[in-house]
Design goal:
four-stranded mixed beta sheet; 2 domains; 12 helices; about 350 residues; disordered N terminus; single chain; Rossmann fold
Length: about 350
């Protein structure tokens, strides 16, 4: 298993002994590259809430590894039923760390399902099976990202301008990413795209992470403030918008980082196709519409004081800080998955993905 681990993404993985989850602390980028090794439930939950690990697919990968590490800590000689009950309690706390991204609950549920199937063989067999399962989740994400990149690249041509919002590159997934996948794959193949990256207030994932990843890959990237998107669209510099997603409802409504729906509205006004890119694991057919997606609200201090030496708002002023918004399906030209590009009506095309 050690060689297999080393072949996977370096941003999220296991330590060599398998006793801790190793992550690149994204909250410190782009100025510092610091890796953390986590073994306790509390520090895993904190890593998700503090955005040390972020991006729906990456959180899912992290959760898979987290459940495995927590399972290793239970007595190997203990009863499988008792250990399973304890693991379910811990995994439930991990799953509740962020409510909007469906990959977190999906990965935890997948790991627990595997544990239940293997419980009859004793706890060591369960732990061994969970190691296989978390590595499989990671491998599958790499394959999905590559397929999404291939499908997404078919939507643009050499020289096109692409606007992005937030970060959906390798840091948020495994390799290539989702929304950034076509851009990075195109760069490898000589398809040169000009990217305008929204900074993505208030946490600046576009500035700190997307610009960081694309610049390192040699992509022609220009960083803009969020309120400049309309200008670059009006100037004719953008031919497509690519964004990731944290959850897609059955009708095609898509939750993504706050500000995404505004980009989609602008794109519709200027006649620019707006695409959502993500693996099928982010599609929640049990969620009828975007109105049913829970939206996380974060600490108001992220608006008032984060990144500043002194507060940039009056003390005591109320702040509203939702982490995500929902883009209506009517604004989305296509939802790009590893299985292909879904087009409206999404109630039919998304359901068809799961009937094959």
């Amino acid at each position: 298993m050690t060689q297999l681990r080393e072949e996977l993404s370096p941003h999220v993985g296991l330590t060599a002994d398998g006793e801790r989850v190793r992550i690149l602390d994204q909250s410190l980028l782009p100025n510092r590259e610091v890796y953390l090794e986590l073994s306790g439930l509390a520090e895993m939950v904190e890593a998700i809430r503090a955005l040390r690990v972020r991006g729906a697919p990456a959180i899912g990968i992290f959760a898979g590894y987290g459940v495995y590490v927590l399972a290793r800590q239970l007595p190997r000689t203990g009863g499988a039923r008792e250990n399973l009950a304890a693991l379910c309690l811990r995994a439930g706390e991990l799953s509740a760390a962020r409510p909007t991204a469906v990959n977190l609950a999906w990965a935890v549920g997948r790991m627990l399902d595997r544990a239940r199937r293997e419980a009859g063989g004793g706890w060591p067999a369960v732990v061994s099976a969970l190691e296989e399962e978390c590595l499989a989740i990671h491998r599958e994400d790499i394959a999905m990202c590559r397929a999404i990149a291939e499908h997404g690249l078919s939507l643009v041509r050499d020289g096109d301008g692409v606007l992005t919002h937030c970060n959906a590159g390798p840091l948020a997934t495994s390799r290539y990413g989702t929304a950034l996948g076509p851009i990075l794959l195109g760069q490898e193949r000589g398809v040169r795209l000009k990217v305008f990256a929204d900074e993505t207030r208030p946490l600046l994932q576009g500035a700190r992470l997307t610009a960081y990843e694309l610049n390192r890959a040699g992509v022609d990237v220009t960083l803009i403030c969020d309120n400049m998107a309309s200008m670059v669209m009006k100037n004719g510099w953008v031919q497509a918008c690519f964004v990731g997603c944290d959850r897609v409802a059955a009708n095609g409504d898509a939750a993504n980082k706050i500000g995404t729906s505004g980009v989609a509205i602008l794109a519709r006004h200027y006649g620019i196709p707006f695409y959502v890119l993500g693996p099928t694991s982010t599609i929640d057919l049990n969620c009828p519409t975007g109105n049913d997606i829970p939206i996380e609200e974060r600490d108001p201090e992220e608006i008032r004081t984060l990144w500043y030496k002194e507060p940039m708002a009056p003390a005591g002023v109320r702040c509203f800080n939702p982490a995500f918004d929902v883009t209506d399906h009517s604004l989305i030209a296509g939802i790009v998955t590893e299985k292909g590009i879904c087009r409206p009506p999404y109630t039919q095309s998304l359901a068809a993905l799961f009937s094959e």
